[in-house]
Amino acid sequence: MILYTxxxxxxxxxxxxxHILAKTLPQGLLLRIASWFSWMLSVFLLISTSFVIVDQESxxxxxRIYFADDLKPGQxxxxxxxxxxxxxxLGPGFHFIPFVNLLYKVEEFGIIDIPDGTYxxxxxxxxxxxxxxxxxxxKWPDDTFDQMLDAEYFLKNGGQKGPQLSVLKPGSYRINRxxxxxxxxxxxxxxxxxVAVIKSNVEEIENCPDQKKLTLDSSDKKQxxxxxLPVVPVGCVGVWDMPLLPGRYYLNTEAYMPTxxxxxxxxxxxxGDYEKRLxxxxxxxxxxxxxxxxxxxxxxxxxxxxxxxxxxxEGWRVPLDIRAVVQIEPQNAxxxxxxxxxxxxxxxxxxxxxxxxxxxxxxxxxGRQVLDLINHRDTLETLVEEAIxxxxxxxGVTIKEIRxxxxxxxxxxxxxxxxxxxxxQLDVTYERERIAQEKxxxxxxxxxxxxxxxxxxxxxxxxxxAEQQKLQAKLQGEGEKLRxxxxxxxxxxxxxxxxxxxxxxxxxxxxxxxxxxxxxxIVKVPSIYVQGQGGGFEGAAAVLGASSLVQAISKxxx
Length: 558
Hints:
five-stranded mixed sheet; 24 strands; 14 helices; Tetrahydropterin Synthase, Chain A; alpha+beta; three-stranded antiparallel sheet; 4 domains
């Protein structure tokens, strides 16, 4: 604050005091007091015109008004002993300068604050003129940067008029506002997954070469194309051959124009914007195949790069959706900017037109069939991928993958095939149903068999018993046969000894005795006395008497 502004108050107070003293004090004493007071007043006036106090948050600026030479034409900042804005500035606090308030106009300006994440762009109003073809003032040396902010040093050490290449980084600065104007801009932030390609409008180094020729690596069988691009070393005018990696940069965007390039792999989708005709096949209960025709408009998906590619195959228009995976390697980013301008330009000017042309040429080549888009999709994708790779490499773009979507085959071509497939499926269905019925029958049969398992076991056992009985009877018959044969041979021998009649009677007697043994009721007490003579069997017969058993045995057949 400038204290000489209090002098009118001081003069009014002094005049009031002298007026009071003139009425109360003697004349001689009054004159001495007036003389003493005038000396004090003179000293105060002298001091009040020779000092200023600058606020802590301000910068004092001086503008000479009286008793100095005029500025030369085109001069903005005055040198010593010149009128006009002065190069020197005043910092905070008390400053004693003789007659400063008489010779100068004193102004205060706030300090310059550059927030974090921004930079200050400087415009010098005075200094040496720019050279021919010079876009901006030369960059300040790093070791003298702070000194260049001093207007006197700036003007004496080659500071140039106009926009400055050097910028103010975040912080607070006390600078001469008569010399410099300051505009605040955002710093360049390069995020992860991207790089910044710089197109410089200024030349910072000497002996910059002409544009650089970039040659693709011919060792790759997919490459071998030469491109001459305006890429220059860092510090020269043009597109720098080295991009800026992720980070924060305080670059003067008036001098360095950044282009941010995504280096992550991106997926570009070409699809939609066509009409799809469909035929719906149905089967009724009788097995008859019916068909229904309808159309559907396919819109472009949200975020799609462009519409689907229309391929002409065998005279049919086949819409084909395509997905391309594209990536720009960091080292190739300058080539992209120099040759095309940006990722959007790469898409519009190189990849999209080339992709459409290559897909049409390969998919619609002579001898190609529509169904090849389904049956030989992998082969076609590989052919397109190899061809489009070279087109992308010309601009520094790596096309990593090409994939086809489901082609929209004309419905008329698919009807016969679909009907055949449906008929085949019906055959398979019917065959499976037959097999299922047979399995069901077998299951039912197995279930019924399980339910009758007890009876089946009994029958099986009965069969086994019958077989055993049959074998037993056979063996018994054979034994009986042998027994009878032995008996017959014995009877023959008996006949030879006893005679035929005696042998017959003996046999009868054995039967009678056997019958009497098994059934005692048939034996009766004889009522007739019989006496036999000789050696026959009359006595034995008489024992039985007139038994009915003997009669039955003795009775000869008629």
